[in-house]
Amino acid sequence: MHRTCRSLAATAAALALGVALTACAGQGGTPAAGTASASAAATVADHDDTDTQFAQMMIVHHEGAIAMAALAVERATDPRVRSLAERIEAAQAPEIERMTGWLDAWGEAAVMDHGQMGHGSMPAAGMEMEGMDHGQAMGVLDALQGAEFDERFLELMIAHHEGAVLMTEAELEDGRNPDARELARAIVDDQTREIEEMRGLLASD
């Protein structure tokens, strides 16, 4: 009888300890699943107007680069130029998808009205190439063939890349979202390297 009572008491104490430890796990060193999810959601949502404008304008900018690169893949006579154009397409298409996903998660419009470009912290000059907009630049390229096309494509893509680097400055200075800032740094690194490559190709002609 006494042994049975002692056994029941020990069992009750063990259960109480287990409940207490479980509660502490939700509050202490190892975060509960709900806490981790909330933290991840907060990171995704953590953005400001600079992040939004960066993603919106860089999507448009990347789309322009891809259109120019696609034309070069079809028309360039120098295999080095074609190879560069293929790499530009392959690199920038996934970045467009990534930025579109951010805007969707942030509840922001995926497309910015062209009339709004340059009215925030992002410079509208980054969208131009030698004073031309994308449509004008594509018209120039479309009228060329052979080595003339290759040379003009490189010149305009250098200007286009320089515009992208210019556009990242505001994001790196004022942007808040860590993923957007990371992409901005990658754009600076990748496109600066490609600018040097294109200058080398022009100098070798």
Describe what this molecule looks like in 3D.
This protein has 205 residues and is mainly α. The chain has two domains: 29 residues; 159 residues, Ferritin (Up-down Bundle). α3 packs antiparallel against α6. The protein starts with a helix and ends with a helix. Keywords: Signal. This is DUF305 domain-containing protein.
What is the structure about, briefly put?
78% of the residues lie in helices and 0% in strands.
Name of the CATH first level of the largest domain: Mainly Alpha
Task: Tell me the number of helical segments per DSSP (H or I, 4 or more residues long).
Answer: 7
- Beta strand count: 0
Quaternary class: single chain
Which structural traits does this protein have?
disordered N terminus; 0% strand; 205 residues; 7 helices; Ferritin; single chain; signal; DUF305 domain-containing protein
List the topology elements.
Blueprint (H helix, E strand, L loop, with lengths): L1 H26 L5 H13 L3 H27 L3 H28 L27 H9 L3 H29 L3 H27 L1
Helix pairs in contact: 3-4, 3-5, 3-6, 4-7, 5-6, 6-7
